[in-house]
Amino acid sequence: MAWTVEHRRAADRRGLRYPSDLTDAEWALVAPLIRPAKRGGRPRRVDVREVLNAIFYVLSTGCQWAALPKDLPPKSTVWDYFSRWQWEGTIERIHHALYVAVREQAGREASPTTAIIDSQTAKAAQKGGSTLDPSGYDAGKKVVGRKRHLLIDTIGMLLAVIVHPADVQDRDGAVPLLRQARRLFPFIARLIGDAGHQGPKMAAAVARTGHWTIEIVRRCDRHRFVVRPKRWIVERTIAWISRNRRLARDFERHCRIAAALVRMAMIRIMIRRLAATLSA
């Protein structure tokens, strides 16, 4: 689809301090989803909007947490909020609320019936420490790092994400991913995957998860590149996520933080999509 005047206006970030900052319309969407400060003790003095701006700055630019600009909250404050939101489920709750809104905006039911599964191997950055989650070697991609296992719907929105070492086979890594999705999306009946998800082990895992059927879409060996039905949707979602430089490689020490950043990337996409429709 070609760019129109409306598309360019919606994507224009020139009036903001940083292109990753939230606009007033975007903040109005996410502000009600963040819990207020707990009662008792000292009142909250941190501007939560600025905390989100800092998280999106790190996600977009790929900088270290300690390299945040001085006009954003300090690293200790931003990291404390981000890790706490990940631990208590706030990021997942925000993601799910925005996901339902995007589905309704597109004229779809809140819970999808078809899901597409795929994985992306991210090369590991140099890091160390006794608490570091392990990486692995993906023999197919010849990459040492971690694998992001994604489950999306037919409009490209994220349903579930699991991050694990790259040496975990797709059919093995899909099991916890499907269990995670089953709790929030009980009406999924059809699963689409590539050749890495074929075989009796994967079929048994799908059957144990729910009354799902799995359809394998194989690549065309006669041509170098052919767009396969439904498979291009998940590849487009991976491309959307990879625009964030923090996700270009695996910089995180823990898999749960890497999965939370993938969700934050999708939250950023959904906020902009919803805000552009409201302002149109």
The global form is globular
Order of helices and strands: HHHHHEEEEHEHEHH
**Gyration radius, to the nearest Å?**
19 Å
Largest sheet: 6 strands, mixed
Report the sheet-strand fraction. 5-15%
- What is the structural class? alpha/beta
Number of helices: 9
Helix content: 40-55%
Cα(first) to Cα(last) distance is 18 Å
Overall pLDDT: 88
What is the strand tally?
6
Q: Stretches where pLDDT falls below 50 for ≥5 residues?
A: none
Provide the descriptors you would attach to this structure in a database record:
6-stranded mixed beta sheet, 280 residues, 6 strands, globular, 9 helices, alpha/beta, 43% helix, 14% strand
Can you give a write-up of this model?
- The chain is α/β, with parallel strands linked by helices.
- It contains nine helices and six strands, in the order αααααββββαβαβαα.
- The protein has helices at residues 5-11, 24-30, 48-61, 75-88, 90-105, 170-184, 200-209, 231-242, 255-279; strands at residues 114-123, 136-138, 143-152, 158-165, 190-193, 213-216.
- Strands 1, 2, 3, 4, 5 and 6 form a six-stranded mixed β-sheet that branches.
- The chain is globular and about 55 Å long.
- The chain starts with a helix and ends with a helix.
- The model has no long low-confidence stretch (mean pLDDT 88).
Indicate the topology.
Blueprint (H helix, E strand, L loop, with lengths): L4 H7 L12 H7 L17 H14 L13 H14 L1 H16 L8 E10 L12 E3 L4 E10 L5 E8 L4 H15 L5 E4 L6 H10 L3 E4 L14 H12 L12 H25 L1
Parallel strand pairs: 1-5, 5-6
Antiparallel strand pairs: 1-3, 2-3, 3-4
